[in-house]
Amino acid sequence: MTATEVTGQELTERVLVEVGRLVRRGMLDAIPDGEPHTWLYRLVRAYPSRPGKAIRPSLCLATCRAFGGTDDDVLPVAVAIEMLHNAFLIHDDVADGSRLRRGRPTLVAEHGDALALNAGDALAVLANQVLRRHCRSLDDRLADRVYAEFDTMALRTLEGQATELGWRRDNVVDLAAEDYLDLIMHKTCWYTTIHPLRVGAVVGSRGGADLRPMVRFGFHLGAAFQIRDDVLNLVGDEAVYGKERDGDLYEGKRTLMLIHLMGHVRGRDRTTVAAYLEAGREGRSEEMVAEIRHLMEVHGSIRFASDYGAGIASAALDAFDDAFSSVPPSSDTEFIRSLVPYMIGRDL
Amino acid sequence: MTATEVTGQELTERVLVEVGRLVRRGMLDAIPDGEPHTWLYRLVRAYPSRPGKAIRPSLCLATCRAFGGTDDDVLPVAVAIEMLHNAFLIHDDVADGSRLRRGRPTLVAEHGDALALNAGDALAVLANQVLRRHCRSLDDRLADRVYAEFDTMALRTLEGQATELGWRRDNVVDLAAEDYLDLIMHKTCWYTTIHPLRVGAVVGSRGGADLRPMVRFGFHLGAAFQIRDDVLNLVGDEAVYGKERDGDLYEGKRTLMLIHLMGHVRGRDRTTVAAYLEAGREGRSEEMVAEIRHLMEVHGSIRFASDYGAGIASAALDAFDDAFSSVPPSSDTEFIRSLVPYMIGRDL
Fold first, then answer.
1. Which residues partner with A101 through β-bridges?
2. Residues near A1 by Cβ (< 8 Å), separated by ≥ 6?
3. Short-list B317, B310, B336, CA closest to B216
């Protein structure tokens, strides 16, 4: 590792930690401290209190600054993004029946479906409130653009989530890598990278920036992120990673590894994979999951996904140059660029 | 029944049907027709396509007109209210595991928890979009007040929902009628009556109306509605009512009838009620539910609740006079007043 790379990584991590702290404070300040505490507001505070990676708000803040804006122009927007992200996480955990989030029990594990679902709804309402209050300070046309970005982002995310759930429920198996990329474009990239980039640029430039190249950069950056996330679910250290390892395998989630495997198995292995796919979550035993993981190793599916992620990351660097060609280099653009290697190298 | 009462009831039903049709069209126009259709947008359209009572949008429109506004001033607000209501219904059905809604299978029954939850999220996003687009046409100060009304409404509703779920989950039993009224003030009245009244008045009067008396009227009107709803769940005709009869009993919902019963049983009956309360939804057999319903009849709990509802309705008429004293009588004020007897007389 060269000196520059070390510096890059240190910069990335320092920014993420700093923004994480700032945004966490912003989120908790925006959550009422009233009643019912035990059944609602304690739950609403739970995920925002747990340190997350803070990729989304960091990307939004840095992009706004890169395009000439200040932290004050955009901080509440970044807070709203992170709050919506947390609301999505609560509902995802309900949908998937997940047990672990950021190293601690999920809300659904602690409080059941109904209370967790309701807390997620409240967090989404509060995110909107933060956004609206801030948009009063923007001129009307700019505020409209910010709102439109949020609406698009929320719908793309929910569309992606629906497709992923639908694939699992209806046991859709004729899937190729392109289908996976189209899925994560909706489910992950829009709200993780594209939206923070676009909304940061639109606020920073007071509406002047060309947002189209942000879609290509955000797509590649977000895809690198999601592919790494899927790989970590198989090979990560649960204590660092903070979610249940193999959770995706139990859920039958159509990851790049699973799609690769489905396309490569023959004979008896094909029957094993088909039986695994047909079994619902409840029907997937520890042995079955271990067997699928073993087949993924044998058929090089995990290696394939990691390589694919590295390729996407290269494309992201290209797209970065295009998206930020109109602004001067700064520690902000350096940070944004440094997220590319961070996405594929991270352990949590 | 006198001639005036017949006219009143006819007026009420005619307005509800007309507004229902108008608002249904508005909701469906606001829902994208794109992909994924099978897993998202078909689900999002389901409840808005089924004719509901349309109490909330009708109240909002009539109040706006009573305070000097036009349909154009407020129709999208009424559409947004009804869309949020439908989003709440989807999530309520997930939380309660309900099987029947407006006479047809619930989304959760047809598509499972995860897809239904996700569709409810999308409907809430679209409701916000409708609201925001309309608020552009209002002056900024008025738009801010409308948004603030929506935020308050959504949070009060989620607080109430959390409390009700919490009571059931933690088997809270030391409850009196006042606790029930406080619960439904949050869970039902705010979004069913208080909010449509307040937001209608604020838009109709361009911010000039005194909204405080709307809380008292809305509370009594909404409480009359909810008490009737709870009674209908026990005595209603399922084909007309459109939900599973006795659903509340299976869920252990703390209705006025159940609270009355808990306060009146002694000896062996007390043990029966305690066993019913301690059993979770899964543990409540048909026999157990039949026994509780029988005890409610024996102890006059259903009669008690109906009488209580009638008393609340009387108070609502008083509060109506106060809330609408500043505006001239019209077919709109007549319609609003007619909702009081409608709430306690309705069969669906």
1. A104
2. none
3. B317
Task: Please indicate whether the domains covering A9-140 and A170-348 agree at the CATH topology level.
Answer: yes
Please report the ipTM that was assigned to this predicted complex.
0.94
Phi/psi of residue A100, nearest 5 degrees: -130, 135
Of the candidates B35, B95, B111, which has its C-beta nearest A114's C-beta?
B95
Q: Which residues, listed in sequence order, are joined to residue B133 by a DSSP beta bridge?
A: none
The CATH superfamily of B3-345 is Farnesyl Diphosphate Synthase (1.10.600.10)
Predicted pLDDT of residue B9: 83
- Domain positions in chain B are 3-345
- Axis crossing angle, helix A256-264 with helix A177-184, rounded to the nearest 10: 170
CA distances for A187 relative to A65, A215, B63, angstroms: 27, 14, 41
The pLDDT value given to residue B348: 73
- Contact check, Cβ <8 Å, A118/B35: no
* pLDDT tens-place string over residues A241-290: 777 888 999 999 999 999 999 999 999 999 999 999 999 889 999 999 99
- What is the model's pLDDT at position B3? 46
Q: Does pLDDT of B24 surpass 80? A: yes
Read off the pLDDT of residues A127-143 as tens digits, 9 standing for 90 and up.
999 999 999 999 999 99
- Chain B partners of A45 at a C-beta cutoff of 8 Å? none
Cβ atoms of residues A116 and A107 within 8 Å: yes
- Work out the angle at residue B57's Cα, subtended by the Cα atoms of residues B53 and B62, and round it to the nearest 5 degrees: 115
| Contact check, Cβ <8 Å, A113/B94 | yes
User: A170-348: CATH homologous superfamily?
Assistant: Farnesyl Diphosphate Synthase (1.10.600.10)
CB-nearest to A40 from B40, B125, B159 is B159
Kindly state the tokens that stand for B24.
């249904």
Mean pLDDT of the residues in chain B = 95
User: Does A280 or B87 have the greater pLDDT score?
Assistant: B87
Superfamily for A9-140? Farnesyl Diphosphate Synthase (1.10.600.10)
Write the CB contacts of B122 (distance below 8 Å, at least 6 apart in sequence): A154, A155, A158, A162, B40, B41, B44
